[in-house]
Design a protein that fits this description.
With 452 residues, this protein is α/β, with parallel strands linked by helices. It contains 12 helices and 22 strands. A hairpin with a 4-residue loop joins strand 12 and strand 13.
């Protein structure tokens, strides 16, 4: 049977674009559909604009710190409108690069929605049907607002980047990556942030010491972090303002409300179930280690599969799929020991097992240090850094590394190489320190704080 193309990719985000480009490089005839903007969540309304906002907020803190270093800095004001203009221009530039790179690789892009018509065909919004030997679902995810709170005017991370002006006060609901990052960013840009988290401590799933350190640092920046607190009701006051009541019985008013309560796979109305593709209860596409669904011609990568919701993971999955199916090299994305960073202030970086996970596997030694980094201490800041190694007592392998510090995202990337290689505590010990840095503490922790 002949097909219009060898691969049709639905979704022009990180995973889809990588798969399309690599497949085209292997000689496949590739087509792609993207209904919104090329680049997907990461480039258009996720990692990239978020990180640029982290930089913007960081400059405010740096200006304050500069005074302690002898600079005569006049009171400064953050101009959101000016920043947004530059942000929009930068995102358009990156979108252009994504489009250009895919097109240059030989990928035909349809700027419209596509749905699966059958295991070997997609249907475009304009009515065209295109047959494909293989179809890749790379449609990502979208923010979820808890039932009953999806009121006009409430925001998710999608809307945040499109604000015309910054509110004076904001309620952020949630305690995960997005909630904590935006709490720090917005507080840093001058918004008075209150954060509700329904559990006992933010960043569930991360190492407990890391969670406590991040929460303490957030409090020291003035974020009003309310744990064990959930929303009961939201009363619209007009103009995006809301009055909240919470499970502690308090009533508060906010200029804006942001829900960062998780993301769900984008599979609604995509024709997957109708074509026989198995979906999980939350709508995620079920795939095996080769990113293949139960329908042999249909594959899926990235957030839509709800494995690990991180851009580099989606990219690896897309690359491995293309190498396997079109490159004659059987490749799998390795989901073990995936490092990640939460861009709070200070940042949190993590790789490997938490102390709690490691203890469940066997005896461990815990090495931990906490200190005021030189740069901030000089300027009078009490915000502390924390570094922690979780070591298997018998094999001596470092099973987990957890860092809360300025630049922790950069540090954890390097530590991840060591852990992935199976480094032992003694490998860390015989590595000479780089002085004076914060990261040197990682190789200078001599005595365990806990052994069992
Ligand atoms: P997360 O899953 O990280 O966090 C969701 C938060 O919302 C949790 O604290 C959760 O609480 C809470 N929550 C969920 N449902 C409700 C509810 N009904 N009422 C109140 N609270 C609720 O999701 P995010 O949206 O923050 O981020 C999605 C994913 O995107 C992340 O998992 C991450 O993989 C990725 N991401 C990565 C970033 C990075 O690498 N720096 C940055 C941003 C996102 P509970 O813990 O109790 O379930």
């Amino acid at each position: 049977m002949t097909f219009d193309c060898d691969l049709f990719v639905i979704g022009g985000g990180s995973g889809g674009v990588r798969a399309a480009r690599i497949a085209a490089g292997h000689g496949a005839r590739v087509q792609m559909a993207e209904e919104y903007r090329m680049g997907g969540t990461c480039v258009i309304r996720g990692c990239v604009p978020k990180k640029l906002m982290v930089f913007a907020a960081g400059h405010g803190a740096a200006l304050d710190e500069a005074r302690a270093y002898g600079w005569d800095v006049a009171p400064a004001r953050f101009d959101w409108a000016a920043f947004r203009q530059s942000l929009d221009a930068e995102l358009s530039r990156l979108e252009g690069i994504y489009t250009k790179n895919a097109t240059a690789a030989g990928v035909t892009i349809h700027h419209q929605r596509a749905v699966l018509a059958d295991p070997h065909a997609v249907r475009l919004a304009d009515g065209q049907t295109i047959s494909a030997r293989h179809v890749l679902i790379a449609t990502g995810g979208q923010p979820v607002v808890p039932e009953g709170f999806d009121l006009p005017g409430v925001m998710t991370s999608n809307e945040l980047f499109l604000l015309d002006e910054l509110p004076k006060s904001m309620l952020i609901v949630g305690g995960g990556f997005i909630a904590c990052e935006f709490a720090c960013i917005l507080q840093g840009l001058g918004v008075a942030v209150t954060q509700f988290y329904r559990g006992a401590q933010i960043l569930r799933g991360f190492d407990n010491d890391l969670r406590h350190h991040v929460a303490a640092a957030m409090g020291m920046q003035g974020i009003d972090l309310q744990v064990d607190t959930d929303l009961v009701s939201l009363e619209p006051l007009g103009g995006g303002r809301f009055a909240s009541t919470d499970t502690r019985g308090a009533r508060r008013e906010f200029d804006a409300v942001l829900f960062a309560t998780g993301r769900a796979p984008n599979t609604q109305g995509l024709g997957l179930a109708e074509a026989g593709v198995h979906l999980a209860d939350n709508g995620a596409v079920r795939v095996d280690d080769w990113s293949q669904t139960n329908i042999p011609s249909v594959f899926a990568v990235g957030d839509v599969t709800d494995r690990i919701q991180l851009t580099p993971v989606a990219i690896r999955e897309g690359h491995a799929f293309a190498d396997t199916v079109f490159g004659g090299q059987r490749m799998q994305a390795d989901h073990a020991m995936v490092a990640s960073a939460v861009f709070t202030r200070p940042e949190a970086g993590t790789v490997g097992l938490t102390e709690e996970e490691a203890r469940a596997q066997g005896p461990v030694e815990i090495y931990r240090t906490s200190f005021r980094p030189m740069q901030g201490a000089f300027a009078g800041s009490d915000i502390k850094a924390m570094m922690k190694l979780v070591v298997a007592r018998d094999s001596r392998r470092v099973l987990g590394c957890h860092i809360v510090a300025p630049g922790a995202g950069e540090m954890i990337q390097i530590a991840a190489v060591a852990l992935k290689m199976g480094a032992t505590k003694e490998d860390f010990d015989r590595t000479m320190a780089v002085h004076p840095t914060m990261a040197e503490e990682l190789v200078l922790m001599r005595n365990p704080v806990a052994t069992e």
